[in-house]
Amino acid sequence: GDSVTQMEGPVTLSEEAFLTINCTYTATGYPSLFWYVQYPGEGLQLLLKATKADDKGSNKGFEATYRKETTSFHLEKGSVQVSDSAVYFCALRVSGGSNYKLTFGKGTLLTVNP
Amino acid sequence: GAGVSQSPRYKVAKRGQDVALRCDPISGHVSLFWYQQALGQGPEFLTYFQNEAQLDKSGLPSDRFFAERPEGSVSTLKIQRTQQEDSAVYLCASSSLGGQYSNQPQHFGDGTRLSIL
Questions:
Q1: For all residues of chain A together, what is the average pLDDT?
Q2: Do A100 and B35 make contact, defined as CB atoms within 8 angstroms?
Q3: CA distance A18 to chain B (A)
Q4: Chain B closest CA to A52's CA: distance in Å?
Q5: Is B48 on the interface with A (CB under 8 A)?
Q6: Is the dihedral of CA A68, B107, A40, A82 positive or negative?
Q7: In the predicted model, is pLDDT for residue A28 greater than 90?
Q8: Measured distance CA(A59)–CA(A45) in Å, rounded
Q9: Pairing of strands A108-113, A86-94
Q10: Would the CB atoms of B100 and A4 count as touching at under 8 Å?
Q11: Can you tell me the mean pLDDT for A12-39?
């Protein structure tokens, strides 16, 4: 079946540090890939997405590149801020069949200290 | 409203009681989804509606879980005879088009946190 594996958290960084959160996937079909962010007490917000190999999704200084050869979609940001503290979820959705289902990783808690 | 609205935000129930969770999707959105998020885990798919039709309920954990969307807008997730393992955050999401458009984003509500004592 489909699955997403994220690096274990929590991740604690100082402000302006470089962020990488690793994400790899297994998919039964051709997936679209997503990163969602969940701030405390809130629902999930779509952060960025990529729908085909070598696409780069970007938003709010975050970016991730769809790497088909390594089945990865790592999230990066060059300089994190305190306001980036949240839980980050990598997710996929395959085309065809049950293509409406999002399959999520377990999430990675990021804490950014001033 | 502008986003997906869920109510109540918090629900505490005693084991064995029935609960009903409500979702108001974004106006005009065709697709509606329910997910269950256990503590420290990612959301897991429960069920999918396209308008009023429930096209997939494969993720519902047991026959105690029931979802409906009778007029193709508001949806209710009902859990009968609740058990402690039902404690989780229940997330509702909607998207503008039918589910065959796999790159359409799903917009999530803030969730209902259900605690079973």
A1: 93
A2: no
A3: 24
A4: 10
A5: yes
A6: positive
A7: no
A8: 12
A9: antiparallel
A10: no
A11: 95
Residues A14 and A113: beta-carbon distance below 8 Å: yes
Chain B partners within 8 Å of A1 (Cβ): none
Determine contact, residues A48/A42, Cβ cutoff 8 Å: no
- Point out the least confidently predicted range of A98-102, B23-27, B78-82: A98-102
Q: Is the pLDDT of residue B103 over 80?
A: no
| pLDDT exceeds cutoff 80 at A98 | no
Residue A81 neighbours by CB under 8 Å, 6+ apart: A15, A16, A112
Chosen from A32, A36, A100 to mutate, greatest number of chain B CBs within 10 A: A100
Question: Per residue in A32-47, pLDDT tens?
Answer: 999 999 998 888 999 9
Cβ partners under 8 Å of residue A47, min gap 6: A34, A35, A36, A37, A59, A60, A62, A75, A88
Touching A: B residues 8-27, CB under 8 Å: none
Query: Is B8 a residue whose pLDDT tops 70?
Result: yes
> Chains A, B: CB contacts under 8 A, how many?
64
- Say which DSSP state A67 is in: B
**B66 near A CB under 8 A:** no
